[in-house]
Amino acid sequence: MDRIDREILLHLQEDGRTSLTDLAKTLRISLSSCHRRVRALETSGVISGYRAQVDSSAIGFAFNALVFITMRSTARAAVDAFESTVITIPQVVETQRLFGEPDYLLRVVATDLTGFQELYDQQLSQLPGVERLTSTLVMKSIAPTQGLPL
User: Fold this and answer.
1) Which residues, in sequence order, are CB contacts of 92 under 8 Å at separation 6+?
2) 5/27 Cα distance (integer angstroms)
3) pTM, whole model, 2 decimals?
4) Which region, left, alpha or beta, applies to residue 69 given φ > 0 means left and ψ of -120 to 50 means alpha?
5) Which residues are within 8 A (CB) of 79 and not within 5 positions of it... i.e. 6 or more apart?
6) Digitized pLDDT (tens) for each residue of the chain, 150 residues in all
């Protein structure tokens, strides 16, 4: 990956809807070269996809929380069961496996405190292999979708 590839990534992180024509003009490269480079970045997996950034509160999910999960066991079967189940819960918008304790960090959205309590009691606490849940409420998102440093 060279300087131009990094510039392509920088611009696409800022605006994934930028046309290839505009991107090529901005970078001062030919359209065919720009197209070839973007496709190569996609094919190699450097660019893993495109999506809209949706304001959760604008669609009724004004309540955000971080949930830390400690597992009873980190045996492969327990981890697989947990991970295959947690990804089926739509309100869990991000899941990260961590080194040490806790074992997982979830970012979840809900309509309000009552919605979060229901999610917590009826789904999160019932996830396979969970020993302990600890949650904290998000007061304010400062940089929710910052691009990678290039």
Assistant:
1) 86, 106, 107, 108, 124
2) 10
3) 0.83
4) beta
5) 71, 97, 129
6) 999 999 999 999 999 999 999 999 999 999 999 999 999 999 999 999 998 888 888 999 999 999 999 999 999 999 999 999 999 999 999 999 999 999 999 999 999 999 999 999 999 999 999 999 999 999 988 876 777 888
